[in-house]
Amino acid sequence: MTRSTPIAPPAAPLTDGTVALRPRRESDVEAIAAASHDPEIRRWLDDEPMDAQARRDFVARGEEMWRSGKAAPLVIADAVTDEPVGSINLQFRSDAVVTVAYGVFPQCRGRGAAPRAVRLLARWALSDLGLERVILEADEANTASIRVAEKCGFQPAGTRTEPAGDGGERSIVVFALGDSGGTG
Questions:
Q1: Phi, psi torsion values for 123, nearest 5 degrees
Q2: If you average pLDDT over residues 143-148, what whole number do you get?
Q3: For 13-46, how does the pLDDT look when each residue is reduced to its tens digit (9 = 90+)?
Q4: Could you please report the per-residue DSSP string of 117-169?
Q5: Residue 61 to residue 58: CA distance in whole angstroms
Q6: How far apart are CA 60 and CA 58, in angstroms?
Q7: At what angle do helices 113-127 and 143-151 cross, to 10 degrees?
């Protein structure tokens, strides 16, 4: 069962003083579009690079995700300057379980933005949204995402195999936080 209830974005940005999570804005489009072509982001995420149409629809598409209850897309921003440093998204599998996907812009990596953002989003999902479980999935070769999961208190919940873009297969490590998956 997938969620169909609208989700309200946080009333104020979720912040820890270093990063802030906030809804998408038109001013974020170019930075996120550029990052969508980054080879490292392309290596791990299934999303296609943004074309001209995706740029035009960026904010409206995000608003529709919130209204439909399918996802909660946010921008990871510098808490002081409000400049975007990445993006993060909750994708609803059901009314109680979500997966988290994120990407940090190449020039902003190595500063701890990903674990800070994942912690903030997971806390919001489990407390404010009342969800039972947050899942983080990472290719077993994606050591950076595996470290993020571990730093954020996610517990290993298994592995699975899925088709890879090259026609082969890849192993995915599944981590969980919340009900029988750690407490954060």
A1: -60, -45
A2: 94
A3: 999 999 999 999 999 999 988 888 777 777 677 6
A4: HHHHHHHHHHHTS--SEEEEEEETT-HHHHHHHHHTT-EEEEEEEEE-TTSSE
A5: 5
A6: 6
A7: 50
